[in-house]
Amino acid sequence: MSSAPASGRWRPPPTCADRFASRVAAMARVVVVGGGFGGLASAARLAKLGHEVTLLERARTLGGALGTVSESGYTWDGAATSTLLPAVVRDLFRKSGRPVEKELELVALDVVREHRFEDRTSVRLPGGTRGAQLAAFDELGRGLGQVWVDYVESFNEDWEVLRRGYFEVPWDPAALPKEVAARLNSRETLHKRLRKSFRDERLALVAGYPFVAEGHDLRNVPAWAGLRAYLEQRFDAWTITGGMGALATALEARLATRGVTVLTDTPVRDLVVREGRVAAVATDLGEIAADVVVVAIDPRRLPALASYVERTMPAIPPVVSYLGLEGELPDLPRELVLHGDPLLVVRTGGTAPEGGAAWTVHGRGKLAEDLLRALARHKIDVREQVVVRVDRSPRDLVDDWGGSPMGVLWQGRATVRQRLGPTTPIPGVYAAGAHATPGGGLPYVGLSAALVAQAIGPA
Question: Is 294:453 a contact under the CB 8 Å cutoff?
């Protein structure tokens, strides 16, 4: 079953913004604000639909958190190193021009990640098949495999309902189908679901990890959001040969092919609203006229939208060290999670000169010591092998990227309605990216761009 947006499926009744979109589509001059994955994907889709598109990016290069960090011959993915729902990327490239297979090589990971626990046990989590996960957790403890796959299977109906009524179609919060509303309105939290599902704390740590790693408190995450475990099992996790930064490079080339005007080093100060609808965006270069604006940055940065998201907070990135290593190193999987406080994550998939290795280490929690010293306490001591080190605090990362790629912090079930997107209260303004519907992470950001393209429609 396809996990990418498709036409011909049920859609909620059109909102006022949808009707506005149909009225202006044929004349739309579209300005996309932000050159991260959400902005690149939105611009590519809308240009292919026949719109005149201009993309504005505050930095000197495109990609945002999808870009890379390089130093002394070593290169690391800036943030994400893999993605779920590869059909989202395939749909993006197919709907904007050539198929992705003509541009990039998507590779399924045999092991999504390895989890090591404080009792020194571990589990390597495979993706793609129920049977492989059952066997992996049975190695952790007899009968745990069945417990795990039963938990994952419990999200099957959630995924099908939300896919059809939330993830893949522009939604109207005031006119939700009953099944969708039941899930989005539920008071059950993921913390409560995990306590009910698992007696073994290690399984709960595995299931909750993606949210803890992004800075969320599981007591504030709705239970249905746990379907990410279902997506990993059903669709696998995928990386791109050459690193995830290659996706940004390919999309930048796609914009050139589609005739998108790209202005880098161009911060947007605000939206210009006249007679109740967007008319332009204000930049240091002056106003740029627009019939439609797609905001693919944190809307808090634009005064015209800030009041609509004042109840939201960004999910803060972790502390990160990009490491260039040489010499004898332990054999680690592509992603290793070391549970405890602090939570440490080691990713080994960077590129390095011959004889070297490029690792990224994330830290979250009580970081009262250097990341590498904390790592050494887990018997992974690479301090003598470091030849290059680039450290970034959460503030550094937000400044570098112009926002948090983790998007909006979960603060309970109401958060899903506090995000903007694909439409906004300002006619002609749409929202994509990590801070928009349906949320942070590459697959959801890719879906947000697809939702915006659906809402605006063809020229």
Answer: no
Residue 196 burial (CB count, 10 A): 11
Q: For residue 421, give every residue at least 6 positions away whose Cβ sits within 8 Å of its Cβ, in sequence order, or none.
A: 430, 431, 432, 436, 437, 448, 451, 452
**Which tokens hold the place of 435?**
């801070």
Q: Give the pTM.
A: 0.92
Q: What is the 3-state secondary structure (H, E, C) of 117-182?
A: CCCCCEEEEECCCHHHHHHHHHHHCCCHHHHHHHHHHCCHHHHHHHHHHHHCCCCCCCCCCHHHHH
| Interatomic CA distance for residues 420 and 69, integer angstroms | 30
Q: How far apart are CA 291 and CA 15, in angstroms?
A: 18
> Which of the four pLDDT bands, split at 50, 70 and 90, describes residue 2?
very low
Q: How far apart are CA 302 and CA 432, in angstroms?
A: 14
Helix (H, G, I), strand (E, B) or coil at 422: coil
Average pLDDT, the chain: 93
Of 246, 237, 248, 254, give the one whose Cα is nearest residue 104.
246
Report residue 331: phi and psi, to 5°: -85, 105
- Residue 39 CA to residue 435 CA, distance in Å, equals 12
Which pLDDT score, from 0 to 100, does residue 332 have? 95
Q: Give pLDDT tens digits for 123-133.
A: 999 988 999 99
pLDDT tens digits for 89-99? 999 999 999 99
Q: Which residue has the tokens 């009968």?
A: 143
Can you read off the two tokens belonging to residue 386? 């470091």
> How much is the pLDDT for 367?
84
* Predicted local distance difference test score (pLDDT) of residue 9: 33
CA angle 22, 27, 33 (to 5 degrees): 90
* Residue 424 · residue 332 · CB < 8 Å: no
- pLDDT tens digits, one per residue of 173-225: 889 999 999 999 999 999 999 999 999 999 999 999 999 999 999 999 999 99
Q: Give the DSSP H or E segment for 45.
A: helix 37-48
Measured CA to CA, the distance from residue 100 to residue 93 in angstroms comes to 5
Give every CB contact of residue 234 below 8 A, 6+ residues apart in sequence: 128, 159
